[in-house]
DNA sequence: TAGTGGTCTAGACCACGGG
DNA sequence: CCGTGGTCTAGACCACTAT
């Protein structure tokens, strides 16, 4: 038996995650939810406080509660440029789409991401350039079942990562970070020496248990790092 | 004006962080705190629930609430062995202390960790061995002002990281992950080739704004990875 | 069995800030 | 101004579990 405040929490979480209540949407006031669920205000308040604590909603006196904007990537770690860590702002950023094609998921890839083979995926390769130097090579798969609107997107104006964050709320992400030696093709694209140490970030993102995207990002090891500040628990 | 449940939260947090209430210590029952603070049970409950949500205490019916054990490193990411990821248990672990000495913080090191030069630090180098292969080289500084009991510790029975977690609760940690090429000395200790790609994890830990320890851990890139599952916010 | 936390109620007063 | 969320009360019943 799940508690009532938990059920209210999950109901609202579901409406936000599914996009039924988009960012900025006003949530029913506490008093309205009291009536809807036939419970006291404390119970509603507990659920809404929990949602606010997780950053899913923003609560403002007199105005009401609103669905928060999609969270940016900093959840895990900030990605900072070793050479220019100081000047947080002022980066010249651009990107280049190297390739883009739609195919069906091979058995091998399906096993890796634990989805069913044959599903339609959009594969995109993208080079990220900061201050004139390539700083990341991105190889991405987007599951078209989960993100059908990606089918006709060229990613010319917005790179795949940012574009996806705007389109799809995510509920879970798994990250793996490894150190690898650059292969010939990667070395050439990143203008580094072959076998140079690189950071390889693999990220798989889900929405309600369904894979949205799977991406491998290779950074030159001498120019980039991952950094994050954490507090216990959470 | 800070709310009462917040004040209760902070009072207890302080007692835990300062070590006044060590791990395992029983916390006064809700009813006792009602009397102490002269408030209702709901107010106490709100504070204790928040502490439990942050993992600082564990609550058990009939038994009471207890200060949680210091959290293990998984806060950031699990460190898993690529080759033996499957067998979560069953690793043969051992460690070897390579060096141990007390010195005063040089100006350069002081600048790096943003502490005052001249402070006494214990420097320890430690090799971690899993299933017969070296898997990490740890170079650590422990601030003796913050952890005086480290002065006479040999770390023979427990490696510095685990020992510290048992001794000192931490309130903040900063991690940086880089990819680097192994230098000659590191390569020899880790039995890998020189210039092989390695993951370099740098971690600085604070307690109430004071640096407790600063550590650099080098992992062979082909054998290790960092992985973590995350949810939005946090 | 008895003490503890988990949940919930039906009120209340207040502070904030948008209209 | 006045609706909203923030906080708090003084109870209540129940589930769990150590003893």
TrEMBL record, chains A, B:
Per UniProt, the keywords (alphabetical) are: DNA-binding, Transcription, Transcription regulation
What is an example of a GO molecular function annotated in this UniProt entry?
DNA binding
**PROSITE patterns (alphabetical):** HTH_GNTR
Gene Ontology biological process terms from the UniProt entry: L-histidine metabolic process; negative regulation of DNA-templated transcription
Q: Which domain of life is it from?
A: Bacteria
The record's section on CDD domains has: WHTH_GntR
Q: Where is the HTH gntR-type domain?
A: 2-70
Sorted alphabetically, which InterPro entries does this protein's record hold?
Answer: Bact_HTH_transcr_reg (IPR050679), Chorismate_lyase_/UTRA_dom_sf (IPR028978), His_ut_repres (IPR010248), Tscrpt_reg_HTH_GntR (IPR000524), UTRA (IPR011663), WH-like_DNA-bd_sf (IPR036388), WH_DNA-bd_sf (IPR036390)
Q: Which Pfam families match?
A: GntR (PF00392), UTRA (PF07702)
Q: Which PANTHER family match?
A: MANNOSYL-D-GLYCERATE TRANSPORT/METABOLISM SYSTEM REPRESSOR MNGR-RELATED (PTHR44846), TRANSCRIPTIONAL REGULATOR PHNF-RELATED (PTHR44846:SF16)
| Name of the protein in question | Histidine utilization repressor
Organism, by scientific name, is Ferranicluibacter rubi
């Amino acid at each position: 038996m799940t508690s009532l405040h938990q059920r209210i929490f999950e109901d609202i979480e579901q409406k936000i995650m599914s996009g039924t209540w988009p960012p900025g949407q006003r949530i029913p006031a506490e008093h309205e939810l009291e009536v809807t669920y036939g419970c006291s205000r404390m119970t509603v308040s507990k659920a809404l406080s929990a949602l606010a604590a997780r950053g899913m909603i923003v609560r403002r006196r007199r105005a009401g509660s609103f669905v928060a904007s999609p969270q940016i990537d900093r959840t895990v770690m900030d990605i900072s440029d070793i050479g220019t860590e100081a000047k947080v702002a002022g980066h010249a950023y651009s990107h280049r789409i190297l390739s883009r094609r739609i195919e069906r998921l091979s058995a091998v890839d399906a096993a890796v991401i634990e989805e069913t083979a044959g599903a339609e995926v959009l594969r995109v390769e993208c080079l990220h350039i900061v201050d004139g130097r390539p700083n990341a090579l991105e190889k991405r798969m987007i599951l078209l079942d989960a993100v059908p609107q990606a089918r006709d997107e060229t990613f010319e104006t917005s790179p795949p990562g940012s574009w996806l964050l705007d389109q799809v709320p995510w509920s879970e992400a798994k990250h793996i970070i490894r150190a690898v030696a650059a292969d010939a093709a990667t070395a050439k694209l990143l203008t580094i020496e072959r076998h140079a140490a690189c950071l390889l970030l693999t990220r798989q993102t889900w929405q309600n248990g369904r894979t949205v995207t799977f991406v491998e990002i290779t950074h030159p090891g001498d120019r980039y790092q991952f950094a994050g500040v954490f507090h216990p628990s959470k």
